[in-house]
Amino acid sequence: MVVDLPDAVLFTCNYNRVRSPMAEALFKRFYGTRAYVDSCGLKPDPAGEGIDPFVVAVMDEMGVDVATHRPKTFDELEDDSFDVVVSLTPEAQHRAVELSRDRAVEIEYWPTHDPTLVNDGSREAMLAAYREVRDTLSAAIRARFGTPSTFGG
Questions:
Q1: Beta-carbon contacts of residue 38 (< 8 Å; ≥ 6 apart)
Q2: What is the spatial distance between Cα 110 and Cα 106, in angstroms, rounded to a whole number?
Q3: Element at 117 (helix H, strand E)
Q4: What percent of the chain stands above pLDDT 90?
Q5: Residue 100 has pLDDT above 90, yes or no
């Protein structure tokens, strides 16, 4: 099935340190520059730590380098003209709806588990939780926007 790729997609979550940067990187991996993609969070990075190190690790397993990602908020977006906004948390969904009040934009909510809540202390358990989120987002992106081969990438 051929799906028309939107011109611009935004992925949102709470801090732009885990879920939304993962989604942004996966989208870029699958579709390259065929569409503009960005990500943001509701709140500033609490401790200025940057992207979560477990995100860097599980994305690196796919050959995707996200180490230079810098978390940003809705207010820090360079552009706010998106065709599709995908919220990954309920809080981000509320803000996305506000963003769309005066413009034509598709708002979607993809409830996505927060892997930072896995806290049994084991590095392997943490990595497994992050991989699960990565793989869930990967499947959802392909289901929504089409398989990468559909677009030649």
A1: 8, 9, 10, 11, 24, 77, 78, 79, 82
A2: 13
A3: none
A4: 72
A5: no
